[in-house]
Specification:
The protein is 84% helix and 0% strand. The protein has 259 residues and is mainly alpha-helical. It folds into 3 domains: 60 residues; 31 residues; 92 residues, no CATH class. The relative contact order is 0.04.
Length: 259
């Protein structure tokens, strides 16, 4: 019965709240003149108070069994609380143990990793040192080989130079002297040396002996010609060919001077 009055109490309270906001909703059954907050408070306020009193009256008093039940429930709660604390303590100890084992394992792995890195670094240093020593050894051997080859080459050149005749040496010197102050083609320089009294063989030897870029000689001669007279491109090429340059060298010179 007390449950019924409790339900009615809650319904009345809800209707009172709604009626104070919207009286027409809860007093739709009453005349329009009575659909206001005053009558809502009167009807549902009184109902709320009455149902609350009836609920209090019909609620059975607390008896000994209820007290015993509460005591048993309290003891059970204490027991459960102790069990929970014990379980919590055990879980904490287990977690601590697992954490220590995990930390130990992690420390071992870290130590192993550091040892491997140190070994790797040491191996790399050793390999680098060996590679540097090998490279140094190879460089020394290469330098020695190059020095020997250079010495051999110089000896051969010296022997070849000593084998030159005096006339050939003079022809080489004169050819270099001519090139120091003017440009020549290869054939033109040989003809000039013959004109100076050297034999054709000595003149040929001299122009073959000296180290000359004949294309650059063609460019220099083209520039010399243009310094004192004007030429068309084809005319300059013909003049350089006449001087003994090849058609390719003459064309290169004409292009180089901008014709």
């Amino acid at each position: 019965m007390d449950d019924l009055f409790l339900i009615l109490f809650f319904i009345s309270t809800l209707a009172l709240i709604i009626g104070l906001i919207k009286p027409n909703i809860v007093l739709s059954w009453s005349p329009a003149a009575k659909r206001n907050r005053k009558y809502v408070a009167m009807y549902f306020g009184i109902a709320t108070v009455v149902f609350f009193i009836l609920f209090g009256v019909t609620t059975p008093p607390t008896n000994e069994s209820a007290v015993n039940s509460e005591q048993i429930e309290s003891e059970n709660e204490d027991k459960i609380e102790k069990e929970e604390e014990a379980a919590k303590l055990e879980a904490e100890e287990q977690a601590k143990k697992e954490a220590e084992e995990a930390a130990k394992l992690e420390a071992e792995e870290q130590a192993k990793k550091e040892a491997e890195e140190a070994a790797k670094l040491e191996a790399e240093k050793q390999a680098k040192k060996e590679a540097e020593e090998q490279a140094k050894k190879e460089a020394e051997e290469q330098a020695k080989k190059e020095a020997e080859e250079q010495a051999k080459k110089e000896a051969e050149e010296q022997a070849k130079k000593e084998a030159e005749t005096m006339s050939q040496q003079q022809a080489v010197i004169m050819a270099e002297d001519y090139l120091d102050y003017t440009a020549f083609s290869k054939s033109g320089l040989a003809e000039q040396l013959v004109f100076e009294g050297f034999s054709n063989d000595d003149a040929t030897y001299a122009v073959e002996k000296i180290n000359v870029d004949w294309k650059e000689q063609a460019v220099k001669m083209a520039e010399d010609y243009l310094d004192y007279t004007a030429f068309s491109k084809s005319g300059l090429i013909e003049q350089l060919v006449f001087e003994g340059f090849s058609n390719n060298d003459a064309t290169y010179a004409a292009d180089s001077v901008g014709l």
